[in-house]
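Re-running the complex after MR caught last week's input typo. The corrected sequence lines follow. Everything else is unchanged.
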Amino acid sequence: MATNETREFPGTYLFDSKMAKKGYGLNKMCYSFNNQEARDEFNADPDAYCDKFNLSDAQKVAIKEKDIIAMLREGGSIYYLAKYAGLLKLNMQDIGALQTGMSVDEFKDMLVKNGRGDV
Amino acid sequence: MANIIGGITTSHIPAIANAMANGLEETPYWKPFFDGYPPVRDWLNEKKPDVIILFYNDHGLEFFIDKKPTFAIGVADEYHNADEGWGIPTIPPVTGESELSWHIANSLVEDGFDMTICQEMKVDHGLTVPLNLMWPGYNYGHVKVIPVCINCEQHPMPQPKRTFVLGQAIGRAVASFEEDLNVVVFGTGGMSHQLDGERAGIINRKFDIECLDKLVTDPEDLTKYSNLDLVEIAGAQGVELNMLLAMRGTLIGQVKELHRNYHAPISNTGSGLMLLEHTMPEK
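Corrected-run output:
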């Protein structure tokens, strides 16, 4: 495999060097949510907390609108975004539904079908 | 001489911890998954390994992307879990094994694997869920654990061919340790899944089963895949196959499959439980 090979996978946001740089502040904020005090501070004033991590305007809008796809586009890594999802009390099926535009039940049905090997 | 007596593949997703905490093991959704485990628990209770070498990935508890080790090994006497962002109750500490850990670390660097060596490291669900699956009720304190953490979160990640040879190097390191210890190696995570993007929800049952088959009979064939191949075939987090391959790499002698249970989906993933017995040829 060639060094620095990149490939496009539609509907997939590879967390590579470009994204790691672009999303650094956003991911750092989400990483901070491992601590309850940080979650409390965010909940008390989300905008001020975003500013503390120098989030871009696009990142702040994505956080405010709970727009997971926009967060990914702006350099978010799903592993750190999962901590923001936890703060919002969303599980991975909720997140899957939000990203695919399905209802949570539709998303779960798709997982069952994929798990059976139907597709 | 330290001796690897077996290898185990298992899922490590947080949803398992929640299911166990809420007593959901016998519910229709979870039963086909949990029903796979008693034979593996029985085997572990019969063989009573002294040490578990556990391959996992850290999902953002100990390591952030400010400094992200490609391969890290713990050499501590004890490890702790902590809040991973959803306020789960903190669980009992994990017992470590410093001497064999350092021996492996020394041997690996000598062998060309430049490990990050950790005397303190918080361990996340990737490590604790498998231990609690094998010794439910968090009754894993008697077994000594050596954590080996592989970057599966940020590209560039180590390629499958590299994680497999890392496993082989660990297998050689264990075989050269003087003390009589029985060791079992866990490869945790996977199998096919994708959490992020519009493509979230991918599970590739056929590929997962093929991987389990190949892990028994021809693991080197799986090293033909690059991480990007795995993203394409098995989803963005399908790269967690690397932990299973590293485990299989440590089994440098004869391997026999004793038990297997593939079930999908659990949460967003395909789950592959497998128990491999390992014997070294007589010297």
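None of the earlier attempt is carried over here. Residues 160-175 of chain B form the longest helix (16 residues). The first strand of chain B starts at residue 3 and ends at 10.
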